[in-house]
Write a structure and sequence with these properties.
The chain is an alpha/beta fold. It folds into two domains: about 190 residues, no CATH class; about 160 residues, NAD(P)-binding Rossmann-like Domain (Rossmann fold), CATH 3.40.50. About 35% of the residues lie in helices and about 20% in strands. Helix 5 packs across helix 6, helix 5 packs across helix 11 and helix 10 crosses helix 11. The protein is globular. The model has no long low-confidence stretch (mean pLDDT about 95).
C-alpha cells in the first residue's frame, strides 16, 4: 500500500501536554524551553483513505517546537529538528512527506528539508490556494456578492500563497487590491498581474484602510498573532483566512454579526478515513495542505511537488484536477473550527443590510 506522512507541530506549548503531561507542572516559559530537548514523535496512524483508483495509509508526526520557537530560535537548529522529524517519517515507511504550519515556512520553505531526506516533500501550498480560491468564490456567491464587480483584497500578497491568490483572482476580478509590507515586492506582483491579465491592481502597505472598503478578502500572512480586528471590516464582506496561526481575531465573530469569516482549505477526504488524532475538525475532514500530501500519495506522484517560495498557477490547476479525480473536495464552510450552517449565512446577510441601512 502507498504511504505518506504529514508533519505537525504544537502551535502553543499547551498543545503538547497530552504527550508530555509533566510539562503542565512547569511554568509556561520553562515548559516551552523544555520542548527543545524532546524528540520528534508519532502522533497517530491514518487509515481508510480510499478513492476508486487507490487506497493509502499514513502518519501524523510531530516536530516538538511551538510556532514562536519556529520563528525565533536559530534557523539552522529549527531546520535540523524538522529534518530529524522527517527521518522519523522515513523510518515509518512513508513514501512522501507533507510539511504543516510553520515547518513549511522556516528557511527556504522545504527545499533544504527535501534535499536532506530520501523521500519527496511538499508544503501543500498548491492545494491550499486552490481550495481558498474556490471557497472564497462560493462564500461570495452565498452572500450575494457579484465577484466580478466586487472590491477584492489579498492581504499578504507578496508571500508564496498570497501572490498566486492575487494572480488567480486577477483572471476574474475587475477591482483588485494587493497588500503587503514590502513595497518593491508588491509592485513586482502588480507588474506580473498586469502582464498576465491586463488588470492594473492597486497596491498598498496600509491594509487596514483597504479592508474597510473590501467586499472580498483573502488573508494569508505569516504573522504570529492576528492582524485583522472587528473594527477593520466592511458590513457584508467575506473574509477567507488561509493563515495558520489565524490572521483574523476571534473577536471578529464575537463582535461582528454582519461579516462572513471562513477558513481556507478545509477538505472532505474520500473513504472511511480515521485520523486517530483530533486536530479540531469533524471526522473525515482535513486542511488542504494535509490533503495535498494525500492526493499525491494516492495518485502515486512521489515527487517534490510544492517547495520553496515560488508557486505557479499551473501547479494549483494540476492539483485541483488530481483532487477531483480521487474524490477530494472542498467542504462546506467552516469558521473558527465550526461548521457554518445556511441559517448563519442568512442572518449575516440580514445584519449586513441593517448595518448598511444605518
Amino acid at each position: 500500500m502507498d504511504t505518506f506522512a504529514f508533519m505537525l507541530h504544537p502551535l502553543e506549548v499547551e498543545d503538547v501536554y497530552v504527550k508530555y503531561p509533566y510539562l503542565k507542572k512547569m511554568p509556561k516559559k520553562l515548559a516551552e524551553d523544555a520542548l527543545r530537548f524532546c524528540e520528534p514523535f508519532v502522533l497517530s496512524n491514518i487509515t481508510g483513505i480510499k478513492s476508486p483508483h487507490n487506497e493509502i495509509e499514513g502518519w501524523f508526526v510531530s516536530c516538538p517546537l511551538t510556532s514562536k520557537q519556529m520563528v525565533t530560535l536559530n534557523e539552522d537548529y529549527v531546520l535540523k529538528k524538522i529534518i530529524k522529524t522527517g527521518r522519523l517519517a522515513e523510518k515509518l515507511g512513508a513514501k512522501i512527506l507533507g510539511l504543516g504550519a510553520f515547518t513549511a515556512v522556516v528557511g527556504d520553505a522545504g527545499i533544504t528539508v527535501a534535499r536532506e531526506l530520501n523521500i519527496p516533500v511538499t508544503t501543500g501550498n498548491s492545494y491550499t490556494v486552490a481550495t481558498a480560491l474556490e471557497g472564497t468564490k462560493k462564500a461570495a456567491e452565498a452572500m450575494d456578492i457579484d465577484f466580478k464587480n466586487a472590491e477584492v483584497l489579498v492581504v499578504g500578497a507578496t508571500g508564496s500563497i498570497g501572490r498566486v491568490c492575487a494572480r488567480a483572482f486577477a483572471r476574474e476580478a475587475r477591482f483588485l487590491t494587493i497588500a503587503g509590507r514590502d513595497e518593491k515586492k508588491l509592485e513586482a506582483v502588480g507588474e506580473e498581474i498586469l502582464k498576465e491579465t491586463g488588470l492594473a491592481v492597486r497596491t498598498t502597505k496600509n491594509f487596514k484602510s483597504a479592508l474597510r472598503k473590501a467586499d472580498i478578502v483573502i488573508t494569508v500572512t505569516s504573522a504570529l498573532d492576528s492582524v485583522i480586528d472587528s473594527k477593520d471590516l466592511k458590513p457584508g464582506s467575506v473574509i477567507c483566512d488561509v493563515a495558520r496561526p489565524r490572521d483574523v481575531s476571534k473577536k471578529v465573530v464575537e463582535e461582528r454579526n454582519d461579516v462572513f469569516v471562513i477558513e481556507g482549505g478545509v477538505v472532505d477526504v474520500p473513504g472511511d478515513v480515521d485520523f486517530n488524532f483530533d486536530f479540531g475538525f469533524p471526522p473525515k475532514k482535513a486542511y488542504a495542505c494535509m490533503a495535498e500530501t494525500m492526493i499525491l500519495a494516492i495518485e502515486g506522484r512521489f515527487e517534490n511537488f510544492t517547495l520553496g517560495r515560488e508557486l505557479t498557477l499551473e501547479q494549483v490547476d494540476e492539483i485541483s484536477q488530481l483532487a477531483k479525480k480521487h474524490g477530494f473536495k472542498i467542504s462546506g464552510f467552516r469558521s473558527f473550527g465550526r461548521e457554518v450552517k445556511p441559517e448563519h449565512i442568512k442572518k449575516v446577510k440580514e445584519n449586513a443590510r441593517k448595518a448598511v441601512a444605518g
